[in-house]
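Worked example 3. Consider a protein that binds S-adenosylmethionine.
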Amino acid sequence: MHQNLLDQLRCPYCTGHFTLTINLKSHKDRVLYGSVECNCFEFPIIDGVLLLSLTQGYGGSEGKLIPYESFMAAAIVFIHTGDLDGLRAWIEKNSPILAQLIYREDLSFVDFNVAYTRQFHTHNARYLDEQKRQYGVVGETLEEGAMPADEQGESVYPKTFEDMLYRKMASGGNFYAKRYFDSSVSVTRNILLQNKPDDYLLSLCFGQGVFESVAREHVAADKMISLDAQLINIFITKRFIHPDGMYICHDLYFPLPFRDGFLSAVFASTCLPELVNQAQVVREIARVTSPEGWGLIEHIWTGKMMRYVPGRYYRYMQNFFASFDNYLTLLNNTCDPGRTHLTAYGFGDYRLDAVDGFTPLSEMEHIDDGTTGMISILMSAKPREIGEKAVPLTDVEAGRLRLSPMYELEREGDALRGAFKQDLRDFMQMTSPDTFEMDLTRLDERTYLTELYQAGVLLLLPEPLVDHFPPLNQWADLPESA
Ligand SMILES: C[S@@+](CC[C@H](N)C(=O)[O-])C[C@H]1O[C@@H](n2cnc3c(N)ncnc32)[C@H](O)[C@@H]1O
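Given these inputs, the predicted complex is written out as structure tokens:
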């Protein structure tokens, strides 16, 4: 956490400034272990992460893996006594998973994630089982839902990284890891590169850092703030994806810790409907963004039918909107009239007019045409690029590109053919083609590689994942299929 940023934050609870009162360990102008104080509380900084949340609003079984509130209390006590060894012993005893992320040196993203996902699903299954036995209407018994074993008695929790990607969520997949294999990441990259922020960029609810993996190559580390309520996601992203970024643990049920217009851009993907207070979150994104900046809320879904889901491991009641049109109402009631231009991709442009509310600029009257599963909303004062035009992969090392493991492959002469493994469609935000044919003699052409990347056939994976998948030229060397 850079001191420059600490000086600019506002306490979300009392609006006061923060003063760095304890600086136990720092590196250059980054505070690694310390404490900041405002008018109402003191908040610890642990391994560079500012713990700003006073409650665990996210809830559910994940609290067992990292008992957040006790962790924060322990952090305050040990920071006060200057006892970093004591803090380490506390973490090792009470949250081995967090201890690994902070202290263990030889840890790989792939191995950690497989072990963590197994543990996570085991916890969820037990948690839901307890809930069901206790309350009847919520939770699922082990037999009903969480499926700890298949018919042969084999555990269905993932043993390999591929298991994590390929298994359906209910039987132990990992949503966050799977996001790295989603073709929509190329669109996100286009948007970021076509609308590069001039100053601070905030990434909200970032999961395992899909956005951070893209943004870290284009935004300075001391201008990149990532905020999420779930400690495990924060420490995974920090450890494996963007170690130099600035991280805040904060619950979006409370205001954001920034003054009005402080940020150049705010990005939030695949999370808005999950937040109970959707209107407040949109209002906060608009408030903290500068008038020249932008806020992108990507991958919004609706789902009236899913209001009560007894088998959720963290939120049984989902106040998902019934229709995408409801988002126009929400935006109309939350955004600052006169400076909001709204683009809901794929469904035309809307402009917020102080008198009439949102005015569609296209012929379409409604966002909701009944065929889409997702919309994304870009809020800005003027129309902006929404990632439809591909940004060529000119500055990217071709050696970092990998073929999507979502395809069954077959080689014939210079052609490599792929067929999408249909049962993996779950949790893909954007659809990759069912089949593709790649010309293996054209792998040195950047425009060709860019096209395949845009389609989701090729992936630009973060460093800790790249080596797990074979390099592109390996396919050129493979023998033809019989
Ligand atoms: C479905 S995930 C999306 C992750 C990521 N943006 C992506 O696209 O893969 C939702 C994220 O929102 C975070 N989240 C949920 N409720 C939150 C809250 N009340 N405050 C802050 N973060 C929250 C979760 O911890 C999780 O990282």
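Take a moment to read the result before moving on. The two ends are 56 Å apart (CA to CA). The chain is about 30% helix and 20% strand.
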